[in-house]
Design goal:
This protein is of the alpha+beta class and 115 residues long. The chain has four helices and three strands; from the N terminus they run H-E-E-H-H-E-H. Helix 1 crosses helix 3.
Length: 115
């Protein structure tokens, strides 16, 4: 079951990424789906989204939430599952944190070279 759920997660992530890219325009932001976790009963999908750019994260999350029903309907056309999962969007700061860690490591590295 675990292997099947992993495949479902990847499929939903790939299809939803394409749908969002085609259907929703963001003014000055790059919106990326980092991960999708579909529940075991396939009724809910937790979608982790990162936002890079000038458009506020809250604005992007509001747009996604406003379009949730349309996104689910479009997803149902592309992915055939027993249930079309209810999409639950979460803001994901992991890329931001990773970038910050790399920046700190570079600063530490340049400090040690300057000594």
């Amino acid at each position: 079951m675990k292997h099947r759920l992993r495949r479902v997660n990847e499929l939903v992530k790939r299809e939803l990424s394409g749908i969002i890219a085609r259907e929703i325009s963001f003014d000055s932001a790059i919106v990326t789906i980092n991960q999708v976790d579909v529940t075991n009963d396939l009724k809910n999908a937790h979608v982790f989204v990162s936002v890079l750019g000038a458009e506020s994260e809250q604005s992007v999350m509001n747009k996604l939430e406003d379009q949730r029903v349309a996104l689910q309907a479009e997803l149902a056309k592309h992915v055939v599952l027993k249930y079309t999962p209810h999409l639950v969007f979460h803001l994901d700061h992991s890329i931001e944190r990773g970038t910050r860690v790399i920046q700190i490591m570079r600063e530490l590295d340049s400090d040690s070279e300057n000594k």
